[in-house]
């Protein structure tokens, strides 16, 4: 069944994307490879939302595992036909894809908010830990001369912008793949059921 092959292909892609999301989120915790900012709670509140670990990571790993293992499922071979069982499994994969949509959607939203609000850093103007770019509504992304306002952690703006952007893109691709699987699962499941009924 070509729908099943497509589902397994999506599963492998989601597996890679989910692992990359987890790695990117972990890196957000360690600006410039330093651990002290995490231990001192000097990180953006959006870093601590675990959107790459939970959302784009674990909640996408579950459907990825379901999609990859789909060829083992036959839903007890309903109607006594293997294709019918596979169509049942395809329809059930839609539920797993919905979980992936929720997880990737969460990753997209938090990444966008993290980019919009900017990093939490120590500034020379305030002499305190603040969100210096909150009022800019993301405008700071194009005002590179203002990035130097953040003294600690060093290069935190570049660090956050790069990793939040990566997570935003990864979450977007995961969302699209899961949405494709919802359509693929519905069509594949319904086609399989129709074919099995004709055989009966």
TrEMBL record:
Domain of life: Eukaryota
Database matches in PANTHER family: TRANSMEMBRANE 4 L6 FAMILY MEMBER 1, TRANSMEMBRANE 4 L6 FAMILY MEMBER 1-RELATED
Cellular localisation: Membrane
InterPro entries: L6_membrane
Membrane topology of this protein: Multi-pass membrane protein
Protein name: Transmembrane 4 L6 family member 1
A Pfam family it matches: L6_membrane
Transmembrane regions listed in the UniProt entry: 12-30, 50-70, 91-115, 161-180
Keyword presence, ATP-binding: no
Family label: Belongs to the L6 tetraspanin family.
Keywords tagged on the record: Membrane, Transmembrane, Transmembrane helix
Gene Ontology CC entries for this record: membrane
